[in-house]
Amino acid sequence: MFESTAPLRAEFQELETALADPAVHADLARARQVGRRYAELLPIIKALDEYNRLTDDLEAAKELADEDSSLAAEAAELEARLVPVTERLTRLLAPRDPNDSSDALMEIKSGEGGEESALFAADLLKMYSRYAESKGWKVEILDAQETDLGGYKSVTAAIKAPNAGQPHSMPYGVLKFEGGVHRVQRVPVTESQGRLHTSAAGVLVMPEVAETEVSIDEGDLRIDVYRSSGPGGQGVNTTDSAVRITHLPSGIVVSCQNERSQLQNREQAMRMLRARLTAAAESEAADAASAARRSQVRTVDRSERIRTYNFPENRISDHRIGFKSYNLDQVLNGDLDAVIKALQEADTGLRLSRVGPAPTRRCRRGRRGCVLPSIDQQACASGPATAPDRSGSLSPLGT
Fold first, then answer.
1. What's domain 98-347's architecture?
2. 341 CB contacts (<8 Å, ≥6 apart)?
């Protein structure tokens, strides 16, 4: 059933060799990439070894069952043990987004609702920050535009895991489901007559892209510097330390003013630009795919309301999967495990529905962490080289 996984074994052996090579560890970016891919393949190889061992034992037991009746009972036991192993291996080999093992950049912007929307954006940032802390992830604010009442017109944060891990437990693999419009229903602190208001904030989640993974021509950039605004000391507000970068071919604009020096702000802005360009390229790849697939891949689309936070009822509702929970106070304090687990399970079901009888194999383009079934090889091969193909992930039912 899993005979065509030989390329994965070969790749795993290559990774083991690379991890023992001091030259690889001298290049931190390369070492991190190899380590992450190794962490992705390790559970697959372990599951394959267990599957092969059980199937070999089962075959031997069946051959000898006619001569020894006790082996017939052992064969039945081996068949029962093989079922969950086969299911686990099938899940591990199901096509997934190759970016799932990445760290994440999250951008939160206030929408309709004025100051109340900006305060809600701040609440969302606090919610995701506390959730990240519970996972042992580090949150770094790259850029923020604050309001007088402590809200955010816009805030961008980098969320990083300390070590490589399984795709379903890494920042982007977990938080990509959060992209979309979040709606809140509550009585704002700015409301003097106690009326219930509805406002919204947009969340955009992008995989963090290493400098070596995306090539950006300096001639395609227009870089403007200006004086930072908002809270800060002399080094922030009295020098032209803020940086705005425009990518001329795409029209994408990013800015950063949080750091004290122009060089630091430029570096942070380039991090955001790389993520934006990758997300835009992936969106183009999705648009080039079939209509059915396109309806599933919507990570960067903010036009869809994905979730409602209803304060009077203490209720959170995710409209993509019909999830409801009446513990909004705990959710806003970072307890997102239930809703994220529900979204991951729904996503896994959709990805498994794409797995046909043919076993999976490595993507012909050799893309980072890309394991696609044969039916998707042509789609992957036609995608832009700068963007890992997302067709393997039916992700976010909203992503």
1. 2-Layer Sandwich (3.30)
2. none
